[in-house]
Amino acid sequence: MSYQALYRKWRPSEFDEVKGQDHIVTTLKNQIKADRIGHAYLFCGTRGTGKTTVAKIFAKAVNCLHPVDGSPCNECEMCRAINQQTSMNVIEIDAASNNGVDNIREIRDEVTYSPTEGKYKVYIIDEVHMLSIGAFNALLKTLEEPPSYVIFILATTEAHKIPITILSRCQRYDFKRITIDTIAGRLFDLIRRENLDVEDKAVRYIARAADGSMRDALSLLDQCVAFYLGERLTYDNVLEVLGAVDTSVFSRMLRHIDQGEFVDAVRLLEEVVIQGRELSQFVTDFIWYMRNLLLVQGSEDLEDILDISSENLAALKEEAETIHSEKVMRYIRVFSELSGQIRYSSQKRVLIEVALVKLCQPSMEGRSGALEDQIAALAERMSILERQMASGTFVASGSNSAPGGGQGASYTGGSVSGGASPDSAGGSVPKAMPEDLRAVIGEWGRIISDVPLSMGVMLKNAQVAQGSDNRLILGFTEAMHKGYFDQESHRQELEKAIAARIGKSVEVVPTLLEEQKQENSEFFIPGKVNLSGVDFAFED
Hints:
zinc, 11 strands, 25 helices, alpha/beta, about 50% helix, three-stranded antiparallel β-sheet, coiled coil, DNA_Rep/Repair_Clamp_Loader, single chain, HLD_clamp_pol_III_gamma_tau
């Protein structure tokens, strides 16, 4: 006899063997024992959750000559005929290929004939949502008032596509996704019966990869066992067959992203590609890894929901303490958007690398993307600034790529060093006079609207005043905001925006308001009229 797939060989033959659908099994068994059998049932649920299996067991149970506690005995003549698919009492119809009006009319004509043996004729219509509108209409009257010996069982994965007139005539049963523990328990039982050698960790991963489908789990196990036939099936073997990645890779990738190490993140992605891993699966598993991390940050009592080993849970809790939850939520948003794009893309690796650029270098996002993502990117840039300022040295952006390896301006302890900044708008632009600075103060609101969004946020609560020569003083209450403009590149960008507005070059000098209180300085506050300007004494 030819080989039979595991999901066919071990398909349940009685209600007690059905796993994960106790609420449905109990109801159907009680109906059979009490002889309260309905005439139309609708079984809904995702693939591989037991809809067709339960329908076949129910068809046997209602015709069984010696039922045991509502379940078929599998020994009488009727049970054996149904198991061998030779019974005329159980008719299976695939609505995907028999979806026309004529097909339903044939059923309507057949139901007028009573069964030659047994009690009931059971019609199992699989994927019933594929029927045409005309076919549904032809089924209505028969479904509402069938002969007493006819039972209809409609099975579908998309109940929302079924007309309400059909739904109202059926008893509806929703099949739930099967839990990982239930799937793993069933796999362990079948592995023992098949005399297979499979590592426990490998079984748990297969159960999780099945995504609530018992049939998918058995198919994956069949595939992995066939690849390593006669050998012990380990966790690493399963990852290799399914093209998946170990969780340690996700931990390394997350650390690279959090630290802004784009080159290292791309190198790690290169390792994943060289190992032949499936990139779509990599994105999906990485999202689940970050989801688990976010749940750990929300609560410590989620071991049963996370479904990971105690060793991995301890590592996850340790990592959860090193990264902020808002960052993790932004990473999940970016990769969730990526998972929708990558499915049908021929350039999956390129899309992942673009996502890594977004996450590792938030400044490159600019004004693109949703407002929520822009705000999250800006918050991450601020956190990077805070870390750099806390370390005592702030290096201006772009210094690492300067020709000849020259260093940019650096911020240490509130002073700016690194040489004089070049003229913001070129050497031909004259320096601003006092009246020009007063014009800048008057045009301050329009100048803010000219700069990039991230800079505009930093300037929103800044106070501005006229300094000596062509200096414009920016007063900040937050050291982080001041540190942003301590970067030479950011100052130059603001100076260019001012020069474009007034046609004169202005030197921007950031300062903290706390430092000016002792000098009794008066800053212009946006929203108030103040064109007098105040001079401050700054050392050259």
